[in-house]
Write a structure and sequence with these properties.
Strand order of the largest sheet: 6-7-8-3-9-10
Shape: globular
InterPro entries: AAA+_ATPase (IPR003593), ABC_transporter-like_ATP-bd (IPR003439), ABC_Transporter_VariousFunc (IPR051782), P-loop_NTPase (IPR027417)
Structural class: alpha/beta
CATH architecture of the largest domain: 3-Layer(aba) Sandwich
Largest sheet: 6 strands, mixed
Low-confidence stretches: none
Radius of gyration: 19 Å
Number of domains: 2
Number of helices: 9
GO molecular function, one term: ATP binding
Protein name: ABC transporter ATP-binding protein
Mean pLDDT: 89
Keywords: ATP-binding, Nucleotide-binding, Transport
Helix content: 25-40%
Order of helices and strands: EEEHEEHEHHHEHEHEEHH
CATH class of the largest domain: Alpha Beta
CATH topology of the largest domain: Rossmann fold
CATH superfamily of the largest domain: P-loop containing nucleotide triphosphate hydrolases
Number of strands: 10
């Protein structure tokens, strides 16, 4: 089966700073991959390169078989990128944002689908509201509804639960699970490690722009030297792995002490 996302040797540099260094991984249809790492690890740069927002400095990204650099329109039609700080047109209503998104992606039956998404996101009755009239959590839900509208094969999420209350978080987790069960691939970046541990099939841990661990939680536990990861939570493994990566980088002289 063709991967929904295929990344080979991804690099991103900003001047002398190498934010992403040689990332290679795949995400299968229906798989949820957790992208985790400390602040400044390169997670957001990675997501923006995957989404085609930033051009990679080197390497290749394919979405549903389409090269993001060579066939950007076709690739972007297959994905949705949901940033941690959604931005909207201040003079378009909730319903008009869905209409605009549908026109961009050529979604013909968007009205029925849009109403269903508004109900799922608890935005029914807010169709005529402007972004300035929405709470932080409601804006997040509108961003997600717009992202789900064209039924992408790959969804990239950067801190998707920001601003949601506990009930909203529970419902959002159910929505993400349902998309995965229907065959959509998801890449989820979050500092909420219990959320990542609960939803994700595999984890990609990055530090200093490099992949320092990739696999399921049991596989990563097994990779820990001498069985040190046996029974450890994701939080414990995260601290051990990223601390070890920082020590290694300092030993190479790549990071300040």
């Amino acid at each position: 089966m063709e991967p929904a996302l295929d990344v080979e040797g991804l690099e991103k540099t900003y001047g002398a700073v190498r934010a992403v260094r040689g990332l290679s991984f795949q995400v299968a249809p229906g798989e949820v991959l957790g992208l985790v790492g400390p602040n400044g690890a390169g997670k957001t740069s990675t997501l923006r390169c995957l989404a085609g927002i930033l051009p990679p400095s080197a390497g290749r990204v394919r979405v549903a078989g389409f090269d993001v650099a060579q066939a950007p329109v076709e690739a972007k039609r297959q994905l949705a990128f949901l940033p941690d700080e959604p931005r909207f047109f201040e003079y378009l209503t909730v319903w008009e944002h869905l209409n605009f998104t549908a026109r961009l992606y050529g979604v013909e039956d968007w009205e029925e689908r849009g109403r269903a998404l508004l109900e799922e996101m608890e935005l029914t009755g807010r169709e005529k509201s402007l972004p300035g009239e929405l709470s932080r959590g409601m804006k997040q839900k509108l961003s997600i509804a717009c992202g789900f509208l064209h039924q992408p094969r790959l969804i990239l999420l950067d801190e998707p639960l920001t601003g949601l209350d506990p009930l909203g978080i529970r419902r959002m987790k159910a929505s993400l699970r349902r998309r995965a069960e229907e065959g959509t691939a998801l890449v989820l970046s979050s500092h909420l490690l219990p959320l990542v541990e609960e939803l994700c099939h595999r984890l990609l841990v990055i530090a200093g722009g490099r992949a320092v661990a990739l696999g399921s939680l049991p596989e990563i536990r097994e990779q820990m030297a001498g069985g040190a990861g046996d029974g450890a939570s994701l939080e414990e493994l995260f601290v051990r792995i990223t601390s070890a990566a920082s020590e290694e980088a300092r030993a190479r002289g790549n990071e300040p002490a």
